[in-house]
Design a protein that fits this description.
The complex is a heterodimer of chains A (about 950) and B (about 525). Helices cover about 30% and strands about 15% of the residues of chain A. Chain A is α/β, with parallel strands linked by helices and about 950 residues long. In chain A, a hairpin with a 3-residue loop joins strand 23 and strand 24. In chain A, helix 12 (about 395-405) runs parallel beside helix 21 (about 565-580) and helix 24 (about 645-655) crosses helix 26. The longest helix of chain A has 19 residues, at about 335-355. With about 525 residues, chain B is of the alpha/beta class. Chain B folds into four domains: about 5-100, Glutaredoxin; about 120-325, Rossmann fold (3-Layer(aba) Sandwich), CATH 3.40.50.11540; about 330-420, Roll (Ubiquitin-like (UB roll)); about 425-515, NADH-ubiquinone oxidoreductase 51kDa subunit, iron-sulphur binding domain (de novo design (two linked rop proteins)). In chain B, the strands form four sheets. Chain B has a five-stranded mixed beta sheet with strand order 2-1-3-4-5, with no helix packed on it. In chain B, strands 13-12-16-14-15 form a five-stranded mixed beta sheet. The radius of gyration of chain B is 24 Å and the shape is globular. The chains are: A alpha/beta (about 950), B alpha/beta (about 525). At the A-B interface, helix 3 of A face helix 18, helix 19, helix 20 and helix 21 of B.
């Protein structure tokens, strides 16, 4: 296949210079004789561009509010004196604008000449990439000379010596190379403030500023620090905004400007940002956020923007490998041999131990099409329903809870909805770290005046950071979500804050009354709940009043809600609150799970659960089975299959012997590592299909090399149900895209699969799944993306659900009785451990640990309150032993009051830490979602890694040996 | 009757030794066992006579000045407490020609009494304007101010009433009155004089502005170089609050208005209204692009009247005597009076409030009395450091916004600086660029880089390097700065530069030629 033909050139985006006006009223003006009609409030610059007249600009870009500093966009307006800036001047009815005249040309040239007199191009025309907006504007205004010369005061010093080191150039500032991904060269800075404004307006971190005044003005990070030492979170917004080469990707400097690009979707978190993957010589040069991406609108975070280096990391395994026993070294084999071996093993096992002795795990990291194929392989090929996915360990309670109350297993809104939110409630989520691009949009709304309520045991960045602060932070004790949420409902009901009209129209009034009488019980009062949750009752009351009566209330929640023994109950409690206050069915409101992985929504949609066919249709439904049985030509098992934990239990019991795991590292990500390891060790054929020899692969017999998102076509579905295109920009390094490998395996076990392109798989999904009926690659190519349901009723998808009625008919109020987890603190384990993420690392870290993102987070640390640390004689940075009923591990302490006394916190990005050795096998009552967020632990001083860690490390090293490489060494 | 001695506490007078005079007077009183009251009044503005000491006699005030501490003993010996003759005797202050020739509307009370005596303020007609205003509908107040023809005295000359109307017509739950007292222009001191000499007139003006536009909160942004003005204003606000002039019921009316004094941090550009608002908000003092106008989105994004001290201090007299009374003064579209501040190399330096329309020649030669060095006047810079230099040839220009604009000049905040024939206009042009380079906020390119390049290019000109090319370059640069700059700092710097080049071309001749000429 010739890739170049697919995307022959760079995807160019039009920069209109200033943001779109949302005004209804239209205004007509004339620009250079062309009549242009635009909404009132549009800038002259944008109107001109929409009419096809490009006005030169440097400080303006449509991602940012107008600023008016560069002075090259000046125009003349009939009847007005002077030369107003077109970026800051709004259009007026009947206005007559001229963008070209001798006077304007002279001013623009004059301004550019001044720029060049303090810019490397004044010394050397070939300075920089030659491809920046600055270079383009200099050419377009016809600048030919710098009459000021290069002898005057300037920020450019070719010798590169900073003042104080022998240089007399007082204004010279040395280049900052501290960020691993981009450089800052102050000499090229034109002080347009686009970077500063991007950091403020788009990202909301406020890490950059202009220092000094007049000629000395220059952008600096933090308090005049290196970028890496500043508050900068390396989201890349400043680099993207920079019209010069002052802020520039290091890859561009090293390898030159990219030549071709395709629009694709980030493979990290559930926000699902659209990027232009820009390529040169079959190598990705950079990922540039795509402005038309409806989830991100041109913004990005450090992971999607920069952390794609794992795709070419030396640890990637590019050849299939097999081995007899897990104690053997790996042996590289051909794809044919690996596939044939696997098929033979699976057949043998099924013959020997029965039809249900094997299963598969689909990946939330792979495409919808790939996920669909893996579950199809299990159902059609293995003839059982032993398929599950990693959503089991994250958002399965969301599916269950929202399914029960509303009738759909997904969030109710699009991300744009946040722009209309008046009160945001963030529960058990830290979007600043885990969903950063959404967090930026939320923070922008908060800066515009929306209110914020945070329920979290930790004082996260959401609670207080630059220019935002939660109006209410309810620092509840881990495990008390249901009690606190029910208590909020108690206040809403007993103080009469509920929306009776909405409830009567949209919900079952009798069920509401039953629920209301339950939440009104004294045991649910803030005063009672306050005692067990550690939250001041007044905070509960205040938060409830604000959410109920503060305008559009939107709830955003994460794994802090679901990963509990009462995860599903918590989701239902959230759903109840939204219904009771009428916060459902319009922009600005809703219940919004922040999904963790790029395609966790999609993997759930695609029938990855043992009890559901694609589209959340229960396997017991005959009509649904019929659809697939007639298409696939097999009889489907009508009994739900095994969930991941059941598969492991069955393996330990000896009835489950083989598994195909695509793109998931269950050993590291699933709870109670020892139990997972035991289960895997008891199997006879573990097939791991992944990019790297992950932790699970230590127990594998077959390794199939995976493909990255850059190497295949397909779709991801993000947290807002948005189906985004993934486009192949590179050939698969290991020959097969993951869907192709699965197809090979299916064929080897005798299935007649003949997909030639993932679009054909999507066609099959659309044909068999009502909520996807209208989805096709053609449609996605045309409109960019759609949100399911996308069918005859909603041909272009459904941004907001439950608008006139709930999907299930009447919204269902469900009693949410608080049952404390069995995981309790006591004398031996007096502290509660909760877990989470950090911005620069992603999940188990398999990808991000193989990028320069480790510069921000090179190890997992245990956050502990100074009081608890003092009691144990611990100092910041000390090695500590973390012990639970399940096991122990060691890591270094980080003493901080972000956690309350009695609570400790850590991340699970590094396999050395093995935080899941500690977590227990308690899980959600409805869905088995593990209780990661509550573990009773003890913390004590330690001298270093635990025995388990040493043994594990030894075992991992041993099991990763590859025969051919061993020989070579 | 206990004798009353008036010794100015105005910082201009203090700079000329008023404190030492006061000390000497106190010592002399003690030594002679005389009981007398020393009143620290403001200055009447005749700085060439400061420190000007006045005594209240049966026949009225008698002034002496300029008084040195060494004069004090002899003043007592001459019986100055009863108006006795002395070499410093000036007679009745309002008969001193420099003061007698003035038309004092805004400065009617300035320098006469204790600036912090609200009773004294009222005794001379103070609060009448506010009393009238509280009984009027906001739109009617705005109409009065509009009809008076009052224009912004900060320099831009924008009609005050129209600005107020915009704020009045903009709906918002909060609006602000901001007084720009960041009087940074060289040779200007009118704002300071009124704040130190008659602070209640500014408070009254702001309260009227608040009632007229629906604003309940005011801020006075005073430059940090004015510690005495800051202290006086703070005390005056406190007194006004206690007296019910400020507060939830202004003068017992249902109108609420209160205000605070804020001090700048030393940046000239913060006298530009949008930088001032940024600074007031605690942000970097950089210029904001307009639109949006501050009247619609000003302080903290709310509709804001931002007026100069003199504009606001002129409002009480308008509300007291009526729009027609005020409008009756002046010429053309420049109505009312203007406090001209005469400084530099001039014999009679000081503040001269008069109706618009005097010619520049009358102001410099007749009122200012020519240079203090006695040499011929070469140039006059009108409107602060960004104003044009006018040669004698333009001395027939009437003091009027439009007449000055016609001749590529501006009256600005009405400060004029006089230079004698020893002035080197190339150095003055360079100074303008240098001033701009030092004070530039750095936001827009013409000002940020252009001013520095301007200094360098003029230096090359002075050194005789490629004079024609560099003169053309300076001219081009001035064009870029004038039309390309974001605010008046960069936009007006070309005025002093180009007026120097235009009117004094001989000073820009190549260096060898200049040496030969000297």
């Amino acid at each position: 296949m010739n890739i170049k033909a697919d995307f022959p050139s760079l995807v160019e985006e039009i920069d209109y210079g200033t943001p779109e006006s949302r005004a209804q009223k239209q205004v007509t003006l004339s620009v250079d004789g062309r009549s242009i009609t635009v909404p009132e409030g549009t800038s002259i610059m944008r109107a001109a561009m929409e009419g096809g007249v490009e006005i030169p600009k440097l400080c303006a870009t449509d991602m940012l509010d107008s600023f008016g500093s560069c002075r090259v966009c000046l125009v003349e307006i009939e009847g007005r004196g002077g030369t107003p800036a077109s970026c800051t001047t709004p259009v007026g009815e009947g206005m007559v604008v001229r963008t070209q005249s001798d006077r304007l040309d002279a001013i623009r040239r004059g301004v550019m000449e001044l720029y060049v007199s303090d810019h490397p191009t004044g010394w050397n025309e070939k300075a920089g990439t030659g491809a920046s907006e600055f270079d383009t504007v200099a050419k377009s205004v016809g600048l030919t000379e710098n009459r000021y010369g290069v002898e005057g005061r300037n920020h450019v010093k070719e010798d590169g010596i900073a003042p104080g080191h022998g240089s007399l150039a007082v204004d010279y500032i040395a280049r900052d190379e501290s960020n691993p991904y981009f450089t800052y060269d102050p000499a090229q800075c034109i002080v347009c403030s686009r970077c500063v404004r991007a950091c403020e307006e788009v990202q909301g971190t406020f890490a950059l500023t202009i220092e000094g005044r007049g000629f000395e003005s220059r952008m600096v990070a933090g308090m005049h620090e290196d970028f890496i030492a500043s508050e900068c979170v390396s989201c890349g917004a400043c680099v993207q905004a920079c019209p010069t080469d002052a802020l520039r990707e290091k890859t561009v400097i090293e390898k030159g400007m990219p030549e071709r690009s395709a629009v694709t979707t980030c493979a990290y978190c559930g926000v699902g940002c659209s990027f232009k993957a820009e390529v040169k010589d079959d190598e990705v040069i950079r990922m540039v956020p795509y402005k038309d991406g409806k989830a991100n609108h041109g913004h990005s975070c450090v992971k999607g923007r920069f952390a794609y280096g794992y795709a070419t990391h030396k640890d990637r395994i590019l050849s299939p490998m097999i081995r007899e026993k897990i104690s053997d070294p790996w042996r590289e084999v051909s794809w044919e041999e690996a596939i044939a071996h696997t098929a033979k093993e699976f057949r043998r096992i099924q013959y020997q131990y029965g039809r249900t002795s094997i299963g598969g795990i689909t990946s939330s990291r792979c495409t919808n099409e790939e996920t669909y194929l893996v579950q199809k392989l299990v159902r059609q090929g293995f003839r059982n329903n032993n398929v599950d996915t990693c959503a089991r360990v994250c958002h399965s309670p969301t599916g269950y809870g929202l399914g029960q109350t509303y009738g759909t297993s997904a969030g109710t809104q699009d991300f744009d909805s946040v722009e209309f939110t008046d009160v945001a409630v963030v529960i058990g989520a830290n979007p600043v770290s885990a969903h950063p691009v959404f967090a930026s949009r939320l923070k922008k709304r908060l800066r515009q005046g929306a209110k914020l309520i945070v329920l979290d045991p930790r004082r996260t960045e959401m609670v207080k950071s630059a220019h935002i602060e939660a109006d209410y932070h309810l620092p509840l004790k881990p495990g008390t979500n249901v009690a606190v949420l029910t208590s909020l409902a108690h206040v809403i009901v007993t103080e009469g804050l509920f929306d009776e009209a909405f409830i009567r129209e949209r919900c079952d009034w009798t069920e509401f009354q039953d629920w209301a009488s339950f939440v009104a019980l004294p045991e649910n009062s803030p005063e009672t709940v306050g005692k067990l949750s550690g939250v001041d009752p007044e905070l509960i009351r205040g938060a409830a009043r604000l959410y109920a009566k503060g305008g559009n209330g939107a709830i955003y929640y994460g794994l802090g809600v679901t990963e509990h023994s009462q995860g599903s109950t918590t989701v239902m409690a959230i759903a109840n609150l939204a219904m009771a206050t009428g916060n459902i069915g319009r922009p600005g409101v809703g219940v919004n799970p922040l999904r963790g992985q790029n395609n966790v929504q999609g993997s759930c949609d695609m029938g990855s659960f043992p009890h559901e066919l694609p589209g959340y249709r229960h396997i017991s439904g005959e009509a649904v089975r019929d659809i697939y049985e007639s298409l696939w030509g097999v009889k489907l098992d009508d009994e739900p299959g095994l969930r991941i934990p059941n598969m492991l239990d069955a393996a330990v019991d000896g009835s489950f012997k083989g598994i195909y795991i695509q793109g998931e590292d269950i050993l590291q990500s699933d709870p109670d590592t020892k139990h997972v390891a035991g289960g895997l060790a008891a199997m006879e054929c573990v097939v791991v299909h992944d990019l790297f020899l992950n932790e699970t692969a230590n127990y594998a017999h077959v390794f199939l090399p995976g493909s990255t998102f850059l190497e295949k076509d397909g779709t991801f579905t993000n947290a807002e149900r948005r189906i985004n295109m993934v486009r192949k920009v590179l050939e698969p390094k290991a020959r097969y895209a993951d869907w192709e490998a699965t197809q090979e395996l299916a064929r080897a076990i005798g299935l007649d699969w003949n997909y030639t392109h993932p679009s054909e798989i999507m066609d099959e999904i659309a044909k068999t799944t009502p909520s996807f009926a209208n989805v096709s690659f053609d449609l996605l190519d045309r409109v960019g993306s759609v949100q399911w349901p996308c069918n005859e009723k909603a041909p272009l998808g459904t941004p907001i659900m439950h608008i006139d009625s709930f999907v299930r008919g009447k919204g269902k109020f469900i009693r949410t009785e608080y049952v404390a987890t069995d995981e309790r603190t006591g004398p031996r384990f007096p502290l509660l451990l909760t877990t989470g993420r950090i911005l620069s690392q992603y999940n188990v870290g398999a990808q991000t640990r193989r990028t320069d993102n480790v510069m921000w987070h090179s190890e997992d640390r245990l956050e502990i309150h100074p009081h608890d640390a003092e009691n144990r004689g611990l100092r910041d940075g000390d090695w500590v032993r973390l012990t639970s009923r399940s096991g122990e591990t060691t890591l270094r302490a980080l003493i901080t009051d972000r956690v309350s006394p009695g609570v400790v916190y850590t991340t699970f990005h590094h396999p050395d830490t093995q935080a899941n050795v500690i977590t227990t096998d308690f899980s959600d009552w409805a869905t088995n979602c593990p209780e990661y967020k509550v573990t009773a632990v003890q913390v004590g001083a330690s001298n270093g890694p635990s025995d388990w860690q040493r043994e594990y490390d030894e075992q991992a090293r041993n099991s990763r040996r590859i025969a051919s490489l061993q020989a070579a060494e | 009757m206990i004798p009353r001695i008036y010794i100015p506490g105005d910082s201009g007078a203090l700079a000329l030794g008023a404190e030492k005079v006061a000390k000497a007077v106190r010592a002399e009183l003690a030594e002679r066992g005389i009981e007398a009251k020393i009143v620290r009044n403001g200055s009447r503005g005749a700085y060439f006579l400061e420190p000007m000491v006045e005594v209240a006699t049966e026949k009225g005030r008698v002034a002496y000045g300029p008084v040195k501490p060494s004069d004090v003993k002899s003043l007592f010996d001459s019986g100055f407490l009863t108006g006795g003759h002395h070499k410093r005797w000036l007679g009745a202050p309002d008969k001193i020609p420099f003061l007698a020739k003035q038309t004092r509307l805004t400065f009617a009370r300035c320098g006469i009494n204790d600036p912090l005596s609200l009773d004294a303020y009222k005794s001379l007609g103070g609060l009448k304007g506010l009393q009238n205003a509280v009984a009027m509908a906001p739109a009617d107040i705005v109409k009065q101010v509009t009809d008076s023809g009052l224009r912004g005295r900060g320099g831009a000359g924008f009609p005050t009433g129209i600005k107020w109307k915009t704020v009045l017509d903009t709906t918002s739950e909060r609006k602000y009155i901001v007084c720009n007292a960041d009087e940074g222009d060289s040779a200007t001191f009118a704002d300071r004089m009124i704040m130190e000499g008659d602070p209640f007139v500014l408070i009254e003006g702001m309260a009227i502005a608040g009632i007229a536009t629906g604003a309940t909160k005011g801020f006075v942004y005073i430059r940090s170089e004015y510690p005495h003005a800051v202290a006086t204003m703070n005390k005056a606000v406190e007194i006004a609050r206690k007296a019910g002039v400020l507060g939830v019921n202004v003068l017992g009316s249902p109108n609420a208005f209160d205000m605070e004094i804020r001090v700048g941090a030393g940046a000239y550009v913060c006298g530009e209204e949008t930088s001032l608002l940024n600074s007031l908000e605690g942000k970097r003092g950089v210029v904001r692009a307009k639109p949006p106008l501050p009247a619609i989105q000003g302080l903290f994004g709310k509709p804001t009247v931002i007026n100069n001290v003199i504009s606001l201090a002129s409002v009480p007299i308008i509300m007291d005597k009526g729009a027609a009374f005020y409008k009756d003064f002046g010429m053309g579209r420049s109505r009312g009076t203007i406090p001209i501040q005469i400084a530099g190399n001039v014999r009679n330096g000081g503040l001269f409030e008069t109706a618009f329309g005097l010619t520049l020649g009358e102001i410099v030669d007749d009122i200012g009395g020519g240079t203090s060095t006695g040499r011929p006047v070469k140039a006059v810079q009108v409107g602060g450091p960004l104003g044009a230099y006018f040669p004698r040839a333009l001395f027939d220009t009437p003091f009027d916004y439009e007449e000055f604009a016609k001749r590529d000049g501006l009256i600005g905040h009405a400060g004029i600086t006089v230079f004698d024939d020893t002035a080197d206009m190339l150095k003055q042009a360079r100074f303008a660029m240098e001033f701009c380079a030092i004070e530039s906020c750095g936001k827009c390119t013409p000002c940020r880089i252009g001013s520095t390049r301007g200094v360098e290019t003029i230096d090359r000109l002075a050194a005789g390097i490629e004079p024609e090319k560099n003169l053309a370059l300076v001219t081009d640069l001035c064009n870029t700065m004038k039309f390309g700059s974001l605010c008046a700092l960069g936009g007006f710097t070309p005025y002093p530069v180009m007026s120097s080049i235009t009117h004094f071309p001989e000073d820009f001749k190549p260096a060898p030629a200049r040496v030969a000429a000297e």
